[in-house]
Design a protein that fits this description.
607 residues, alpha/beta, 6-stranded mixed beta sheet, 6-stranded antiparallel beta sheet, 20% strand
Length: 607
């Protein structure tokens, strides 16, 4: 019965403000399931030549991904960045000029002007929450409350926040609740779901299917209004259970960060700071050998700190990054924020079995190398540790294949701009950092084993060039790549003048490094930047990758290795060094330039 009712609703009816209310009442009066993606996957052809106007605070990962997917379907798109409520005029002007079929707000925290909301053009809000969830701290509360499932919903813009009709909604399981951060959840499952619900909503619009009113009596509407999370909600009581502290830090990561007071030794005053990058200690090491209380910093490793916590002070949690509460403070490795003078009596843990941001998992003769550096940035020290790890693997003849996995959110983003910014000599720190990452790549080139880069996370600038030093490069459908140095006014190094033209040609290589474009995995594959796509997302990729690699016949691997040894002769390595020398000559000039210093400063301080 409800299908027949919807069949008679034409596009004209849907677009008519006068009859919109009756359409909504009709849908509401029927026992209709919530609209979800999947039913109209074969109808994307209906979207060709639509005109979609997008409003966003910034061109973040979600906005980029939605835009790219729309463009792939030959939809005409226009993006407008809105900086405040006062810039509503920009939205109205773009709306009048572009004359869109539909308006989409993938990431907008400002009010859409009434003249747009009340027009006959649907205005769709992408909300990072399940059906019925409302408020600006949705993901924060989802992780704080240890939700097992979450989702994203496409809503009609209305005057009341997140209260509009539901065009489409999708839910997913939170697969890694103990390690995922708010930003990781947003940039991963939320982005994937957002693409699905946006496309589903557009197809429904083209078919004349109205959205479903938000009805809290509906059994599928499980969300509720959540107030904005304040700093007092993010403040850590170190006597809380360690699982709650971990959730509190991760629900505030990467912004604004949880607040915690750290107790230091040797009579130093406690330090109030924002905390990031938490991992529950797998064993309460040192707790039986030191006199400590909850909140004490009792150990350090790889610039991370170990903090005692729990009701009985019998648990501990690692924290990798801190930010002071000063107005102009920036995020840095935890030990750097505390200062070496305040950590002289804190022991350094050397065990490879305890809290490592580089770890190797072996499966027969394949070694998977995970380097989960915070935000993908690689400091001098991190580069040297990664290089040593790779060299050890290279020296082990049992490793027929080495797979570079990077981190969960980022494969790599290149040099560590935050550490460079606070250095006493940024130009020198930049120089040492670029040479350190070049040394990592040189080690990758020199490996006799077959090397595979598996981008489970996004990559940018030097991080992409590091991936390209492998023999094969794979990504999943959700991976985004930005192979450009332009944002930092840099020429670039990491042997890009060799690796990139080898894959995409000289002209395309120059275009990519000097442009500003972000590529989807599909686009990267089309230009030969990568060799293949494995899975829809990182979880799918992690499940399929080992089997794919293990199924490669040994004879094929031997032939590939023989070809590699033949190619990598003295002339090859001399050629690589020539590329590096030329790149570094340009980079040395860049590191002393005003444009680089300004771009780096603005990036670090988010100006």
């Amino acid at each position: 019965m409800w299908r027949k009712a919807l069949d008679v609703i034409t596009k004209a009816t849907l677009r008519s403000p006068a009859r919109w209310a009756s359409t909504v009442r009709l849908a509401s009066s029927l026992e209709v399931p919530l609209p979800r993606p999947g039913k109209y996957l074969n109808d994307y052809g209906l979207l060709e030549d639509m005109r979609v106007l997008l409003f966003s605070n910034t061109q973040n990962r979600l906005t980029n991904k939605v835009t790219k997917e729309l463009q792939n379907l030959k939809i005409n798109t226009k993006n407008v960045t809105v900086g405040s409520n006062a810039e509503g005029y920009k939205m109205v002007q773009a709306f009048n000029d572009f004359k869109p079929s539909v308006v989409i707000c993938p990431f907008l925290t400002f009010r859409v002007p009434d003249v747009i909301c009340e027009s006959d053009v649907p205005c769709l809000i992408v909300h990072p929450g399940i059906a019925g969830d409302r408020g600006s701290s949705s993901l924060d509360w989802a992780l704080r409350n240890k939700s097992q499932t979450w989702g994203a919903t496409c809503l009609q813009a209305r005057g009341k926040l997140d209260s509009g009709e539901i065009w489409s909604t999708e839910e997913f399981e939170i697969n890694n609740p103990k390690t995922v951060t708010k930003t990781g959840l947003y940039n991963g499952p939320i982005v994937d779901a957002a693409v699905d619900i946006v496309l589903d909503s557009l197809v429904r619009f083209q078919k004349g299917i109205p959205p479903k009113p938000l009805d809290y009596s509906h059994p599928e509407v499980q969300g509720t209004f959540q107030r904005r999370m304040q700093d007092n909600d993010r403040t850590i009581d170190w006597q809380m259970p360690v699982e709650d502290i971990n959730s509190l830090i991760r629900c505030s990561d990467t912004q604004p960060g949880a607040l915690g007071e750290l107790s230091l030794t040797n009579g130093n005053s406690p330090l109030m700071a924002r905390l990031y990058g938490s991992n529950i200690a797998s064993s309460p090491i040192l707790l039986n050998s030191v006199d400590c209380k909850a909140g004490d910093v009792i150990a350090k490793k790889n610039e991370s700190i170990l903090v005692v916590c729990g009701p009985q002070a019998k648990d501990a949690i690692w924290v990798s990054a801190l930010k002071k509460t000063d107005e102009n403070a920036i995020k840095l490795p935890a030990t750097e924020v505390i200062g070496s003078n305040n950590l002289t009596e804190i022991p350094e843990i050397d065990s490879v079995y305890i809290h490592h941001d580089i770890n190797v998992h072996k499966c027969d003769d394949v070694a998977f190398v995970h380097f989960n550096f915070y935000n993908g940035a690689m400091s001098v020290a991190q580069c040297k540790r990664l290089q040593n790890t790779l060299q050890e693997l290279s020296n082990d003849n049992q490793n027929k294949m080495i797979v570079l996995m990077g981190g969960e959110r980022f494969f790599s983003t290149g040099i560590h701009l935050n550490k460079i910014e606070v250095s006493s000599d940024p130009a020198q720190e930049s120089w040492e950092n670029i040479n350190a990452i070049d040394d990592v790549i040189k080690t990758i080139f020199s490996m006799d084993s077959i090397v595979v880069s598996a981008l489970q996370g996004d990559a940018a600038a030097g991080g992409i060039m590091m991936a390209l030093s492998a023999d094969f490069v794979y990504a999943h459908l959700g991976t985004m790549m930005t192979p450009s140095y332009k944002a930092m006014s840099l020429y670039g190094s990491e042997y890009w003048t060799y690796s990139l033209p080898e894959r995409v040609g000289d002209v395309k290589a120059r275009e990519l490094t000097s442009g500003e474009d972000t590529l989807t995995a599909s686009q990267a594959l089309n230009i030969n930047l990568i060799d293949g796509i494995i899975g829809r997302n990182r979880f799918d990729m992690l499940q399929k990758l080992p089997n794919m690699l293990n199924n490669i016949p040994g004879s094929v691997l031997e032939r590939l290795m023989a070809d590699k040894r033949k190619k990598h002769n003295t002339a090859f390595y001399n050629r690589l060094e020539l590329h590096r020398d030329i790149e570094l000559r340009y980079m040395k000039e860049c590191f002393s330039s005003a444009s680089y210093n300004k771009a780096r400063h603005n990036f670090v301080y988010k100006k």
